[in-house]
Amino acid sequence: MPHITLIKVRGYHLDVYGHVNNARYLEFLEEARWGFFEEYGDLDWFMQTGLALLVVNININYRYPASMGEQLAIQTSVKSTSQRSAVIYQRIQLAGSEQLVAEADITFVVFDAKQNKSVPLEGRLKELLQNMLASNS
Questions:
Q1: Helices 123-135 & 22-40, crossing angle to 10 degrees?
Q2: Domain span at residue 11?
Q3: How many structural domains comprise the chain?
Q4: Is this prediction's pTM over 0.70?
Q5: For residue 136, what pLDDT is reported?
Q6: Which CATH number goes with the domain that contains 40?
């Protein structure tokens, strides 16, 4: 089952047209990914490894303009993994409805700060992501 994060649209999220600014959606998606990894990903272990998940590509489709006061429900799930990267799928809907606001595929690599480069997606991290992938089925 996908992880759900709720975010209420505030005035400072809006553009001059009264809709959520497109750049704010990236922040909403990031907030939801943190919640996802806190709940399913053994974040404490991951933080101790010194590794980082670096976003290398975001493909986002905007479908509906959210407005002030609306509550957004962000679904987050692992879509796929490979030897060098993984993709997280996120879907934003108006809470309590089927209205799709935006959806995104976020591709990331594992970055090792000590080596200053991306490293293969393997070991415990790959196992965690595979378990997240399996739990979304």
A1: 100
A2: 3-135
A3: 1
A4: yes
A5: 64
A6: 3.10.129.10
pLDDT beneath 50: ranges in the chain: none
Question: pLDDT tens for residues 7-16?
Answer: 999 999 999 9
Task: List C-alpha distances in Å: 39 to 8, 21, 62, 77, 135.
Answer: 20, 28, 27, 12, 12
Look at the block and give the residue holding tokens 């997606």.
121
Give the list of residues 6+ apart from residue 132 with CB closer than 8 angstroms, or none. 36, 40, 41, 77, 78
Active site residues: 15
* pLDDT given at position 42: 75
Exposure b/e, 19-38, CB count within 10 A at least 16 = b = bbeeebbeebbeebbebbbe
